[in-house]
Amino acid sequence: QKEVEQDPGPLSVPEGAIVSLNCTYSNSAFQYFMWYRQYSRKGPELLMYTYSSGNKEDGRFTAQVDKSSKYISLFIRDSQPSDSATYLCAMSGASGSARQLTFGSGTQLTVLP
Amino acid sequence: SQTIHQWPATLVQPVGSPLSLECTVEGTSNPNLYWYRQAAGRGLQLLFYSVGIGQISSEVPQNLSASRPQDRQFILSSKKLLLSDSGFYLCAWSAAANYGYTFGSGTRLTVV
After folding, report:
1. Lowest mean pLDDT: which of A48-52, A100-104, B15-19, B106-110?
2. A103 neighbourhood in chain B, CB within 8 Å
3. DSSP letter string over B7-43?
4. Which chain A residues in 51-110 lie under 8 Å from chain B, judged by CB atoms?
5. CA of B107 to nearest chain A CA: how many angstroms apart?
6. Would you call B88 and A105 a contact, using CB atoms and an 8 Å cutoff?
7. To the nearest whole number, what is the mean pLDDT of chain B?
8. DSSP conformational letter for A68
9. Exposed site from A36, A83, B60, B72, fewest CB < 10 Å?
10. B110 touching A, CB under 8 A?
11. Are B27 and B1 contacting, i.e. CB atoms less than 8 angstroms apart?
12. B30-44 mean pLDDT
């Protein structure tokens, strides 16, 4: 079993839809949770960063962490064609060790005009 | 501010040829540095990481090697490329893993 599981999609939605992207994990030591967005042929860029459980909102994006269920989500409101990308979740434990960022395999999202 | 540079952007190399990809970071000192490979439609595979000059940890045994000759320079090499080495190679840096990584723009390598 992988430490982080992410539905690979592909996911296709109409413009304006609410998108929900999810990851589950098995390591209870994870405390820092991130979402990266990767456009085609580009490097991933950090989109959202949260610590421990709770919600964080940034414009149309909301990141949710439920540590009790070992489940994290990224919601995109009023989705736009420019949101079409692959979204990767990533997480880390408390230690500052270099090794400890673990990525999901990514979900490919297409927002249709 | 910190920036990361990775080159070349694309590379087509014949089987059996050598490889050298370079990555440099500006605006920070003693960064953690990483090389990842991403096959088409697949996730990120960690190849090497480094916490300091000359300190390289290998995650996947293969015909690739990495070196860190200077604090902010990370090089990925191969003496003889295989077809299976084709992919999208990404360099990244972090101050610490729990701060997240900043990725370079990537190198698309095609071995023919």
Report:
1. A100-104
2. 43-44
3. E-SEEEE-TT--EEEEEEEES-SS-EEEEEEE-TT--
4. 88, 90, 92-101, 103-106, 108
5. 9
6. no
7. 92
8. T
9. B60
10. no
11. yes
12. 88
